[in-house]
Amino acid sequence: xxxxxxxxxxxxxxxxxxxxxxxxxxxxxxxxxxxxxxxxxxxxxxxxxxxxxxxxxxxxxxxxxxxxxxxxxxxxxxxxxxxxxxxxxxxxxxxxxxxxxxxxxxxxxxxxxxxxxxxxxxxxxxxxxxxxxxxxxxxxxxxxxxxxxxxxxxxxxxxxxxxxxxxxxxxxxxxxxxxxxxxxxxxxxxxxxxxxxxxxxxxxxxxxxxxxxxxxxxxxxxxxxxxxxxxxxxxxxxxxxxxxxxxxxxxxxxxxxxxxxxxxxxxxxxxxxxxxxxxxxxxxxxxxxxxxxxxxxxxxxxxxxxxxxxxxxxxxxxxxxxxxxxxxxxxxxxxx
Length: 336
Ligand SMILES: Cc1ncc(COP(=O)(O)O)c(C=O)c1O
Description:
Layout: H1 3-7, H2 17-24, E1 32-34, H3 45-53, H4 66-76, E2 83-86, H5 88-100, E3 106-111, H6 116-123, E4 127-132, H7 141-148, E5 152-158, H8 170-178, E6 182-186, H9 190-193, E7 207-212, E8 225-228, H10 231-240, H11 248-259, H12 261-274, E9 278-282, H13 288-297, E10 300-304, E11 313-317, H14 321-335
Parallel strand pairs: 1-10, 3-4, 3-5, 5-6, 6-7
Antiparallel strand pairs: 2-8, 7-8, 9-11, 10-11
This protein binds pyridoxal-5'-phosphate.
Pyridoxal-5'-phosphate is lined by residues 37, 88-90, 114, 158, 162, 186, 188, 212, 214, 220, 225.
């Protein structure tokens, strides 16, 4: 086994409901799962019907993802030659690193942020440069420009950022693009924020925008993400990815989801009205770990980062109103 792989810190993914239930010693239907920024409204109803009706599960998917890319391009307002689909946007993060970053080359992230950037960078033997966000968790432009100008190959900017919710502004992205490094703007929560920089892609070959169907469309379990990028990058990405990465189930679910776009967007609206897809919540000093554990003991699972600067915070996914109610009641019980 390679030393850099052995030294990498594994990404701690969220556990499934049955495991959480077993750990808390409660029945599975009592689990309130607010730890994965999943969409607890579930997928569009037509998804299950389409999966049941599909009759060619024995045939490999299209290695060129033709229908998937056409559908995604039409949805995103771009052209299929700029689109590549991945097994979640996670896979695209990995593929981009493998395409652009060699061993020992620098990759920038602005922490705290989504953990897969660090995990995958370590796995390809890249050198991770973590630039701390400022007091309000915004991107510190000057520090990032300095780090980027120092031989970095690629930067990840999640917008909205997970777990802090900050958007990255266009001026910052333009400044970084001008340095010639690959700028990956991760818009996993685009449908909730309504803010995108995808319009900049045609004029900037070094910009990649990532999106996913995990959050707004409730397809986290079927794994479907996509990237919008320069044609030359897309062409090469298609040769780097495993040939059959997008399953026919994911393709079927994609098509069925877009048939019910209005319903899905009305759920997005309900989640935003309830409070956005997720909230980073600051607790009284020193209470983070205790509150996280006490919540879990009562069947309410949230995300906790046991390290500075987030040790006094929990991240809570916004679900249906009765889930929020349960969370609030349980928090009051624990904190009073
Ligand atoms: C910022 C960000 N990017 C990407 C992902 C991964 O999404 P996917 O399910 O498409 O792999 C997440 C999931 O939490 C995320 O928060």
